[in-house]
Amino acid sequence: xGKKQLRILLYGxxxxxxxxxxxxxxxxxxxxxxxxxxxxxxxxxxxxxxxxAYYIIQKKESIQKDWFSYKDKIxxxxxxxxxxxxxxxxxxMVFSKLYPISMLFILLVVxxxxxxxxxxxxxxxxxxxxxFHTFYLIGQDIxxxxxxxxxxxxxxxxxxxxxxxxxxxxxxxxxxxxIIAAFGLFLYSYIKNKSISHVQLSKxxxxxxxxxxxxxxxxxxxxxxxxxxxxxxxxxxxxxxQSVFSRKDFVSRFGTFNLSFRDAIDFMTPILTTxxxxxxxxxxxxxxxxxxxxxxxxxxxxDKNLVFILAESYDEIAFxxxxxxxxxxxxxxxxxxxxxxxxxxxRTTSDxxxxxxxSLIPSIEDGPTCYVFNKNSYSTSLANLFNQNGYLTxxxxxNYKEFYTRHLVYAxxxxxxxxxxxxxxxxxxxxxxxxxxxxxxxxxxxPDQSPFMSFVITLxxxxxxxxxxxxxxxxxxxxxxxxxxxxxxxxxxxxATQIELDLFVGKLFAxxxxxxxLDDTVIILTGDxxxxxxxxxxxxxxxxxxxxxxxQHGNLYMWTEGLLHxxxxxxSSSFDILPMINSMFDLGGDYNHYVGNDIFGTEGTLxxxxxxxxxxxxHHVYLSDMLTDSNRIKMNQSSLYYEISRKIxxxxxxxx
Length: 656
Hints:
2 domains; 8-stranded mixed β-sheet
């Protein structure tokens, strides 16, 4: 490329930079000048494409020459692109305008690195990258179908749990055929091609190899989304790239190939904290005081026992007076929170347990809370509030207690005891039945000592929803006789699992009555998440929920003898349960330390989701939305909660 061409390229880049500066200084989206903002965005993007095209045209002769010299790299790039595009189409990902530039950038960087390696090592490198990406995309596709999000390498510690939880959930897709075919074609073509391209390491060659990637890197930054005036950093692509808080958004803008490299770097980087993080937390609590006024429900359960049931995958599509009479009793005789949400965070059940016990937002960016932060402790937790009021606190689950490292996590929550499968004496078959679980664990759920608080996690409602589920098989004929052909078969198997939960509740009612403490005990029941492993077409048609955030409309029942039945329409979520219990049992906890609010003590609570969006009861607001003044205030508060929760986890701030 001659000096004249270089000068034109340089002037073009400087011009784009000048437009970016004008945009950042004067025309960021804030409800005004939207037309000018859009014109600037598209002008910068069009100019970026022109720069890319101009560079390629000027290097045309060199590219044509290198076509045969670098044939192995062309085969390598073609395989990656084939897989990438097929993945995008199958999962209906939105191609952002940033994607082609960022994808070209990472591909050229990888190719440049490969060219500089010794020939044999370069060949191994190329085959390894394509092989890895083949399995990576298939794994991401399976994960995305279930969770509507992509996994991180930091979740490697939960592979065992994932395999056990995902039993029977694998489904072979056409994409897997396409990706495997692309890999096979790559391997055949690559090995058949005998020549191995290589570039000697020298200053001149380094400049030649990395000039275009450097230009692309600048163009990527020119076209990134920048934070809106007065909004927090979370709205920017730079924050998205640095934190990868939403891998779905990351893939949409940067691609899965980019995600795998970015995630690998993050996986190898240790989590570091400084004194500044602690100061940030202290300043936050000092300057964000929550006012909590006494209300009609304050202290109404003071000194009563509590049995808190976290029901695996419980959804009200399983609810009926005939098949689930005990759940019917809880809902129709006690307090029924009809506008309650159970947001699904990355580690589903264990993250919901974390929310219920701490009213903090689980780890989104740093890996699974139950592994990365399982040595943390929380003086502000649900168990510790009851401990401080003289209660015996126990957590009980029919699975083995090392699952999700609960034996460590619940010690951090402050429970006096945690009883798992081995302590209860359950076989691998019996643990699948909530009714048998109750019979074996009743002495721990209803101990002799009073007052007590028992936190119980059920299991029968877990997938798969078919003939391989023992609990489903046991109760399927009953459900089939009741619903007939009016209900999809997968839904009938699901409902059959929840009959075990109903039997559990029925036995609990009977034993509390027999021991004469029914009127001294409160029962709370809520689900850990909607049945996302159920065939979603069946779930959507039967439940009526098609939007992912609305599927997380949950359930919350509160019952005690003599409590007046009420249907509560106030918006609530899992985050609000601990503050509400704090008020109703008069436990003396500091409301400032919780993300949630006492449901009866305040209005304006929000439902927080793992992608940093929120639901206010009417609108589901995303980071990318144009914000009204009201929503901007909510978004700023929401962003603070995500940030403060992240720092609390990293610093173990509430260490007891």
